[in-house]
Specification:
The protein is of the alpha+beta class. The protein is built from 8 helices and 19 strands.
Length: 286
């Protein structure tokens, strides 16, 4: 399944480019709130597998919002790709490096991002959405708690993030639209292997210089230091994870700061994860 948010209502995206309204198709049993689908995950997936959803309606992909616009918690994992830790000249972590992006930064997949400064960086990420309440679970149970996956970008204003006396990771990463994700939450049965997905971030615009298009990031989830089941399990040793919670799982090498490249007005960044989807963000001056 591909579960999305269309005009603040939960929908199923179909293979023919239409959307089925979950609340209408289920006779009000599920939805219309996007998060409500994940709060009744077991019942919803059983219904979705058997029900006749009826015909969908055409939609404009630009209308899609964040698949979960109001999660209880948003987590982000740092230094979680081997090549990214290497480009930062840092040791591979032995434990999760965790921060948060505040929920007001969440946005749909194809939003325009206002740049608060000339120090805004990009990081394509596989996003995990939680489908079951869990606390202190092992990796095997953690896998069963994952509802699905989405494409995400973790934008960062590096000056605020790194200013003293101590870094302000969460604050510098939480300007409006600094956490776009989507276009849908894709369940594992739609993917060959979540542990072997290709991620690419492609730039057009002034920051691309003389080249029309530049591939900034090209990695694979096979390079994750902590795979998704380990992330969920390790988080659950401390916190209780709730249905609809969102986890940004880290980024591969190629981010802007190490190369002195930051986003500029007029840039267009297209982020793609194999089998999961594509989203495009445009950047303007604030």
């Amino acid at each position: 399944m591909r579960i999305a948010n269309l005009a603040d209502r939960a929908v199923l995206l179909t293979g023919d480019g239409t959307a089925v309204d979950v609340a209408d198709a289920s006779g009000g049993r599920f939805g219309p709130s996007p998060r409500a689908v994940f709060e009744a995950w077991d019942e919803f997936t059983a219904w979705a597998a058997e029900a006749d959803h009826g015909a969908g309606r055409p939609f404009d992909p630009a209308e899609l919002g964040a698949p979960v616009p109001d999660p209880r918690q948003v987590f982000a994992i740092g230094l979680n790709y081997r090549d990214h830790a290497d480009e930062a000249n840092l040791d591979h972590p032995e434990d999760l490096v965790v921060f948060t992006k505040f929920a007001s930064a969440l946005a749909g997949p194809d939003v325009t991002v206002e740049l608060p400064s000339d120090r805004v960086d990009y990081e394509i990420e596989l996003v995990v959405v939680i489908g079951r309440r869990v606390h202190r679970v092992g990796p095997e149970e953690a896998v069963r708690a994952i509802a699905g996956y989405a494409v995400g970008q973790d934008y960062s204003e590096r000056a605020v993030q790194l200013r003293g006396p101590v870094p302000q990771f969460s604050l510098g990463k939480s300007y409006p639209n600094f956490a776009p994700f989507g276009p849908a939450v894709v369940t594992e049965d739609e993917l060959d292997d979540p542990g072997k997905l290709r991620l690419t971030a492609v730039l057009e615009g002034p920051s691309a210089g003389d080249e029309a298009v530049v591939t900034l990031q090209d990695g694979t989830t096979a390079d994750l230091i902590f795979p998704v089941e380990r992330i969920v399990s390790d988080l659950s040793q401390v916190v209780t994870l709730h249905p609809g919670d969102v986890v940004f799982t880290g980024t591969p090498a190629g981010v802007g700061a190490p190369r002195g490249l930051f986003l500029r007005p007029g840039d267009v960044l297209t982020s793609t994860i194999e089998g999961v989807g594509t989203m495009t963000n445009r950047f303007v001056a604030r």
